[in-house]
Design brief:
264 residues, mainly alpha, 2 domains, four-stranded mixed β-sheet, 11 helices, globular
Length: 264
């Protein structure tokens, strides 16, 4: 067993945690991809129509990972064990304060970036026309950052102190939508633009405060931002857009349907 008193072991422990962080990111990516499958296809259809060899390999890999991490969990001291809720929670007052803080942050970022926002180019509008209304495409502004990235919000330090570890790292996200402004950390591509426009439609239909409330409650329930229903729906529609042959569907109708069905 390792000992922190051993210099060699300390180096190995640091390396171990670096590799664990990398594994966590890969697992989160796999979880996100699986969530998209869950949203689009029923269990019965996957079992019946998926390529059986591919499906079996995915199941075997998931089972092996589950067994491995479960064996580790059995050795975690009771005091450090994960709570039954799957993560930290907030009181009602804390949750309301979090919603207010997120709303203020989103509004402030919108005001920060709107002065440098540019309208969509004619080519971008033509590409997005089958999926979004003219009003949306005319209203939204886009910003491409150069030599910098969107920093994490100032309230992250407080959230992490409360035990929230799966907060989205904003500098590593392709695009972020602040109401009607889509900001890109890197180059703008059609898929990232589509995702950002989906979120702009969500803001338009839900309103800022309701969006923030749904996001906070979804995050507290799922403990990961990409499994929050708002974000999961954006990913699912993005995947549908990226698939060849999926043409001419209305994002606004899809969002309104999820609102009506209470899926957010």
């Amino acid at each position: 067993m390792f000992s922190w008193d051993s210099p060699d072991d300390r180096v190995a422990i640091v390396q171990m945690n670096a590799e664990l962080r990398h594994a966590k990111l890969e697992l989160l990516s796999a979880e996100c991809a699986t969530q998209q499958l869950r949203l689009r296809f029923s269990v019965e259809d996957l079992a019946r129509y998926a390529e059986q060899d591919l499906l079996r390999k995915a199941i075997n890999a998931a089972n092996a990972l589950n067994e491995y991490y479960a064996s580790i969990e059995r050795h975690i001291p009771a005091a450090a064990a994960i709570s039954e809720t799957g993560g930290p929670q907030l009181s009602d007052n804390q949750a309301l304060a979090a919603v207010a803080r997120l709303s203020a942050y989103l509004r402030a970022q919108r005001e920060r970036y709107i002065p440098t926002g540019a309208p969509l180019s004619p080519q971008q509008k033509e590409t997005m026309q089958p999926f979004f209304s003219n009003m949306c495409l005319e209203r939204v502004r886009i910003v491409q950052l150069t030599g910098t990235h969107i920093p994490n919000p100032p309230f992250y330090a407080e959230a992490k102190a409360l035990g929230f570890e799966k907060l989205p790292e904003l500098p590593h996200i392709a695009s972020l939508t602040f109401l009607d402004v889509v900001v890109f950390n890197n180059s703008i591509n059609d898929r990232a633009l589509f995702h950002g426009l989906v979120q702009a439609v969500q803001f338009q239909i839900l309103g800022l405060e309701r969006y923030a409330g749904l996001f906070v409650r979804g995050f507290l329930k799922t403990q990961a931002h990409f499994t929050v229903p708002l974000e999961a729906h954006a990913f699912a529609l993005e995947s549908k857009f990226a698939q060849e042959g999926e043409k001419n569907f209305s994002v606004e109708e899809q969002v309104r349907r999820w609102v009506r069905e209470g899926r957010y």
